[in-house]
């Protein structure tokens, strides 16, 4: 690292003061150059030994092929550790990285937006025991822009080239500029971590961050989403149950085709095309072909495949049609509270105002102080006697961290008590 780089990294005058500061310095090359891509068991074994012998935290990142391939698997894994340098690992050539994960399991892993990368890392055998999330740290520290590029620029004074963030990382071989970009993503991650830790300590928020990081590391894998077809873009236009059945059938067939071909579902059939077919309910292949998204470029066999899905939905008995919406697992949408329960609506309004005010005092996003879902659940079914202790216990049951409870329990107890009593 150059003297200039050390000076910039140790400086705190770029932390969230709002000052623009000097122009950032472009970071163009990794310190040791672009490392070779690790794609064989023999080369991986050498990386495992090197990182096991390294020192301090481990910077970790992963690149996916979102929008190109089916699912969210990792197509490149980047790591950096003092004493080991940077490694770029190809999960296609090395699909099981359990040995690498075990080699650094006692170290703190530094990730940016950890919840995005942990699922694909878990798939290949890598799961941290401890982590530091620089994106979440930036939120807690009060940064307005928490992407990796803006954070490196504002905190360390360097600009990262982000032109390759949305490329097809399943491409082989990976072009040299992409590999350089990937290596630079972990180049300063530990330096960023150190500067953010210092800033969080200065603000009195470091323990809050540690609680958040521990919760992320300990969280189980998310459960599969029920009725994922309901997330089709444009679903708000689809009203009738028979039309919903068309969406379900087309979505299911598209997902099967996309998985078989290992391509993004949107490349097989767009969400807009699914909704168009659901609204039109075409009775013939010709009628389907006339709809947007099913034009002349689509072959007869494909058209027949989609038409068959529509026909299956048209033929379903009423008892097998999907309900208009999933049964709610929690409170109803807030917009319905005024009609369903005006007293609960008043509680929610008071609680939201209290949480917003405290978040502004602490200079952090409201959703990081307390999740909106937790606030809604608390207000819909409050404790019978909303004392600070009872509110704290309820928040704990909803998964709130202790620092969040300390900052909000009393405020929420006041808000819940101030709302008009039920008649």
From TrEMBL:
Coiled coil: none annotated. This is Ribonuclease D. Residues 240-320 form the HRDC domain. Residues 1-33, 309-337 are annotated as: Disordered. It comes from Streptomyces glaucosporus. The lineage of its organism: Bacteria, Bacillati, Actinomycetota, Actinomycetes, Kitasatosporales. Residues 320-335 have a biased composition (Pro residues). It comes from the Bacteria. Residues 1-14 have a biased composition (Polar residues).
